[in-house]
Amino acid sequence: MRKTHVLINADDFGLTAGVNRGIIDSHVHGVVNSATMIMNGHAVEEAVLLAKQHPALHVGVHLALTWGRPLAKTSHPLTKADGTFRYTNRFLTETPPDPELVYLEWKAQIEAFRATGLPLHHLDSHHHVHGWTPIQDVIVRLAEEYETTIRALSTLDARRDLWVTERFTDQFYGAGVSRETLDAIRPGASIEVMVHPADIDDTLPSVTSYLEQRLVEKELLKSYQRPDWWA
After folding, report:
1. Segments forming the whole domain that contains residue 167
2. Does residue 46 lie within any of the structural domains?
3. Helix ranges restricted to H, the chain
């Protein structure tokens, strides 16, 4: 059977130490072969060291606009009074930002990644905000500027030439975290599967409500037997 490129990408690399442990464990002992690093996370330096210790793991940037603090000095208009981003996972109902400010912020995040010396595999974003129609030109501009690829989202269908894979699925999340979801992946066009494995540490509950399922994800990703047709 013809091989199909399957990118099992772990989001949130660098978010916390527990997330880092879960991702590396799922890579070394499981099917995770890619991760995207959130450059304003709580454990980025550790994630960088781990990535360098495991060069077989592809690493990209998990661009942030809906969580944490910005990296660019020009990003004050994008923040709340406490200095964190004012956008949330409900951004579709929120007033769009100035695309130029988003460009400068995301460029700062990419440059912070490049400064680590790690090769840039691709770009995606926290809560898929890079596909938000008012700012989707920003991710296209950055992908072209850095000669890289982006997570395939339907709102970016016009730029399929920039997609890291020909298909993308976010079904392995929440109630969809199961062996059956992984079994449902079929041969054909290349595909990215979004995953969020982690160990629960003291910091993670203050960052996200998505907790216990991360442990379930990790165990499934470690125990899952890679089909022969996966490349």
Report:
1. 6-223
2. yes
3. 17-28, 44-53, 99-114, 136-145, 179-183, 212-223
CATH number at residue 156: 3.20.20.370
Radius of gyration of the chain, Cα coordinates, nearest whole angstrom: 17
Stretch 199-223: mean pLDDT: 97
Assess if residue 24 is contained within a domain. Answer: yes
Residues 19 and 206 sit within 8 Å (Cβ to Cβ): no
How far is CA 59 from its chain centroid? 9
> How far apart (Å, rounded) are the C-alpha atoms in residues 205 and 18?
11
The predicted-structure confidence for 126-174, as pLDDT tens digits, reads as follows: 999 999 999 999 999 999 999 999 999 999 999 999 999 999 999 999 9
User: Quick check: 1 pLDDT over 70?
Assistant: no
pTM for the structure as a whole: 0.97
**Rounded-to-10 torsion of CA 155, 158, 164, 168:** 40
The domain total for the chain is 1
